[in-house]
Structure formats: structure tokens, C-alpha cells
Amino acid sequence: MEGMKHSSEIQQAARMIAAGELVAFPTETVYGLGANAFDPVAVARIFETKERPSFDPLIVHICELSQLDGLYRGDDERVYRLAEKFWPGPLTMVLPKQEAVPDIVTAGMDTVAVRMPANPLARELIRQAQTPMAAPSANKFGRISPTEAHHVTKQFPDVYTIDGGKTQVGIESAVIALHDDGFEVLRPGVITEADLEAVVTRSGIDSKEKQQQSPGLLKSHYSPGKPMYIVADPCNHFKEQDRAGLISFGIPGDNCHFSRTEILSRSKDLREAAINLFSAMHRLDESHIEYIVAEPLPEEGIGVAIMNRLKKASY
Ligand code: AMP
Ligand code: MG
Fold first, then answer.
1. How many CB atoms lie within 10 A of CB 140?
2. How far is CA 215 from CA 19, 57, 199, in A?
3. For ligand 1, is residue 109 a contact (CB within 6 Å)?
4. How many structural domains are present in the chain?
5. Are strands 23-26 and 59-61 parallel, antiparallel or unpaired?
């Protein structure tokens, strides 16, 4: 089992979590900066370390379904149907919370966001720490999400980090809310609306209601230090290619002269593009170029989630 390779690191990390400290760990989406979800002082350290505003609630990670009982007050059978189908995996459900869930985790709301990560290292850490873990992405607030351990250690050299290699999904979980008449996608992910609709019915709630419900969903997010633009047909339409780096969906044409090029997927596979997106952004951000130019991807299926990240990164 993969966990064996990391067993002493996981033991150490689990002890630290139990002692109220923070640990960075891999999930299948991005690296998380975790703390015991029931320790408000430890959770406060997450906000301090990330410089994250306190209005932005955290996702609580569990390793087995029985831990849901301590977090979720309710018995909606749709929750268990979705869990059965998509957990462990990159789906977060916003649910009515149990009294015991600290306010700092939920930004004072009466709901809590929960998911069970697919990465076995993450679940083993939670199992050994013997507590659900609150964990946002392990980066400074608003910046590019970490998909490799060195992205974390560069920003947080003092945080104990378990290196599980490059993450397997590459972008954050889909976040959904359940309403009486259906579900609502608050943040798109690789589990698409169509995937969800195969399990539960969708309601016709309009997007205005979303922003109030999910306070952390800001227009600007995932931002590189360099200016970033989304440009259609960038090889023909971006002028200063010698000063810019390109994020290309597939293989760019011969007329392209960007100083650096990151290809998200040679075969234009959206799943592969999601895996490579943040690593490509990190590399361009660290290189000598002045601007980052991203080619738009088709906004269908997983492309919806990737474009969501690109738009916020270039806002
Ligand atoms: P992150 O931890 O950065 O992946 O972001 C988690 C996001 O999930 C937050 O920024 C919110 O937008 C959303 N979220 C977490 N908890 C809740 C909640 N109780 N209600 C609505 N949205 C939530
Ligand atoms: Mg984040």
C-alpha cells in the first residue's frame, strides 16, 4: 500500500494534528493546510498562516462516513446517495451543521462543508489523528493553489508537509448545496453538473443567490504574481509574445512565438488539463516572463471548472 512509504511521516503529522498544530498534506485535488476541525485555536492558525479572511469558511475532511454524524445534523437520503456515488472523491457538500462544529470553521454560518478525499494518505492521516480535519488549500489567500509539495514549502517553509507527489485531480473539489427542490453548484469541479444530475435532481435556482450562500467565492482568486490574461487565438492575437508565457490547451500552431509555452494536454483532454493547470501557472509565475496569457478552453464538462479558475486568476 502507498501509505507504507509515508507511514512515519503520517504518524508524526497525526501527532501534530492531535496536539493542535498545522500540517500540510496531499489530497487528490490540491495540497491542504489542515488542523483538527474541533479545535478552534488550531483552526484560527490556519486563517493566520494563510492570511485568509475570517468570512471564508473551510471544508472539513473526513476519512469514513461515520465521521459525518459529528458534523451533519440531518438525515437527507440524497446526502448518502451522493456520498455512496462520489466519496471518496472531489465533491464537497454544504450541509446543516451540528452544534459542536466551531463557528470559526463555518464563518459563523449554520452550515458546514464536508468531503471525503480520495487520496489514501489524506484519509490515513485523518484516521490516525482521530478527528475530521478542516483544510483549505495550502497557499496564501487568493494565490495559486499548490499541486506539488514544493509549492507549499516555498510559501510555508516552517509548515510540516507530507510530500505525496503531484496531485491526481489538480483543481479544487466541486462544492454543492442541497435545497428542498434540488442541488446547486457553488463551485464547479471535475465532478460535473451532469454527473450529479445522474444521482439527484437539479433545481432552477439563479446565480444571484449563490454569492450570498458561499462567502469565499470571490471574483479574484488563484492569482499569479504576474498579470494574466485570457486571450482567444493567442498566437494570432497577442502582440508581445517575446515578453509573455502561454498556457495552451493543446499543441500551439507554428506561428506562435511566446517566450515560454505550457501545454495543458497534447491530446486536448480536459481531465489532463485540470491536472496540469496550477503547476503550469506556478512555473510561468516563477520564470522570467512578464505576462501570462491563457488560451480559453471549451466551457463544457470539466472545462467549466478549468475556465472558472482561469477567469478568477486573470480577474
Ligand atoms: P477552499 O477551502 O479554499 O477550497 O474553499 C472552500 C470554499 O467552500 C469556501 O471558500 C466557500 O466558498 C465554500 N464553503 C465552505 N463552507 C461553506 C458553507 N458552509 N457554505 C457555503 N459555502 C461554503
Ligand atoms: Mg483555496
1. 13
2. 30, 7, 27
3. yes
4. 2
5. unpaired
- Cβ–ligand 1 distance for 214 under 6 Å, the answer yes
Residue 280 neighbours by CB under 8 Å, 6+ apart: 247, 262, 264
H/E run at residue 103: helix 103-106
Going from the C-alpha of 307 to that of each of 77, 213, 229, the distances in angstroms are 32, 21, 12
- Parallel, antiparallel or unpaired: strands 111-115 and 59-61: parallel
219 within some domain: no
Per-residue pLDDT tens digits for 36-84? 999 999 999 999 999 999 999 999 999 999 999 999 999 999 999 999 9
DSSP labels, 166-217? S-SS-SPPEEEEEETTEEEEEE--SS-HHHHHTTSPBP---THHHHHH-TT-
Tell me: do 14 and 75 sit in the same domain. yes
Residue pLDDT, tens place only, 186-227: 999 999 999 999 999 887 665 555 554 788 788 999 999 999
Is 216's C-beta closer than 6 angstroms to any atom of ligand 1?
yes
Which atom of ligand 1 lies closest to the CA of 173?
A: 4
C-alpha cell at 28: 487528490
Q: What is the CATH number of the domain that holds 294?
A: 3.40.50.11030
Q: Residues 103, 186: contact at Cβ < 8 Å? A: no
Convert 250-261 to b/e letters by CB count within 10 Å (16 or more is b): eebeeeeebbeb
Considering the domain architecture, whether residues 206 and 240 belong to the same structural domain is answered as no
Is the CB of 27 inside a 6 Å radius of any atom of ligand 1?
no
CA 295–ligand 2 middle distance (angstroms): 23
